[in-house]
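Table S2 (continued). Query chain:
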Amino acid sequence: MHSQGQSSTPAFRTISLIGIATLMIAAVAIPAFAQNSVPPTAVQAAKMPQYASRLAHPVKRPLPPNSLALQRAKARRGPLDSSDIYDNGPINGNTDAWDINFGFIVSDSFNVAAGNQTSITGMSFGAWLFSGDTVTSVEVSITSGENSGTSYFDQTVNFTQGSCTSNQYGYNVCTETGTFSGPTLNAGTYWVNLQNASVPNGDPVYWDENSGVGCQGSGCPSLASENSVGSIPSESFTILGSATTTTTPPAPVCPVRKPASMTSVISAPTLDPRGWQSTLPGSSTARLPTGAAMARASFMTSHKEPAIGFSALCTAFWEAATEIALTESLSDLKELFSAPR
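Corresponding output:
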């Protein structure tokens, strides 16, 4: 016969296991920022005693009219600089900023203009920092989706800190610029993702929120998200690089006027000893040399339709010169059409 203590042991174990499982499920359900001692935004951190004491004495008003951010805003109202592929606008410095370390990832979209193939060479962004902090590096990735999809680039990039100014919360608001050998991108929409920002003493680093005000570039302002809360207003940043514009050369303009005489254009069975051959204009056809375009380039040169035959000859010469890439053929063509009209 079992004692009462022995019979209660399995029930106690069952209750204990259920309790542990419930705690585990609850921990998973808690948002990432709730599990993190660092809040996702700079304004939230400024209200927490452990961070408020670290900030410089806050000013009573937003950044003044002669501040770094507003100077940049005025300077950026024109077109993009030659090295700027996309600009989501100048630093705001007053509204808020989003953490890009301590497990947080902030993603912003950017566009490469149509007709361009672009080599990405770097980026700059606005950062909110605790007094005395200097950003040394940030993990930068470029993807086809919102911190997802095809990855075109993912590296830890060293950044150089530019001019800084203090805002009303006591943060230093600074411009950070990093260069790297990035991917070559076709026209389209991409995402730049920042995370694992590093400062020597391990403080939080925040990416300035500007909602794309003053942006320059195709498709601006950016969309943005943060991995713990979802969609957010977009941030201040510029994608740097060089664009190669893809253009289609214009079609040659062939003369349509009748030459003085067909014999002034084709005066012998052989135009060029290197292979540009033709029959005499009195025959029914004139043939250009080997090659697919040349094999198709036959036309009538009867005295009834001399102008049509001449225009066809011009087009056939251009097709042939393009197909076999003979630069001397182009010079032959120039000499051909220098004949008096």
